[in-house]
Structure formats: C-alpha cells, structure tokens
Amino acid sequence: MANGITPLVPKDNRSNNCCPVPEHASVLESAGLIDLLTLVVPWPLLYETLRTRFVRRVDWVAALDQRLKKPNVQFVDDSDYRD
User: Fold this and answer.
1) For the whole prediction, is pTM greater than 0.70?
2) Run means of pLDDT, 10 residues per run, the chain, 83 residues
3) Which residues, listed in sequence order, are joined to residue 43 by a DSSP beta bridge?
C-alpha cells in the first residue's frame, strides 16, 4: 500500500491470528467466485447506468464489457420494471 501498511485479515475464522495479504486479494477472490456463478444483469438499464458512471474510467468500461461477454452472464429484460 502507499502508506506502507499491509492490510491484515484473519488467517482462520476460528482464530485471532492474522497474516498480511496483498491489497487486492479479496477482489481477486471475488472475481474467481463470480466466474463460478451466473451473473444476472437487468438489461439495458443497469448497463446504461454503469457505463454512465464509468465514462471517465476507460479501463472500467472495458472491464465491464469483458465481464458481460462471459458465458455465465444472463441478461434479463428490465422493461417490465420501469415506470
């Protein structure tokens, strides 16, 4: 980390022992879990909302587009849920 502090996480849920982990370890673990699950995406409202929020972060838009092209993504028409 930039401030020189390494984040600590429990080594085992049953103990209070802690060990240092990389800064983005939990994000990487979550990404692996997402690949195992079916990601349901309300279409197109959620996509439009996220792209609008990510517009200044080209890398985030690219990552979103890549994620949505994976085979475990299911799109659900959201027209029934709009006003």
Assistant:
1) no
2) 48 49 60 80 91 91 92 92 75
3) 77
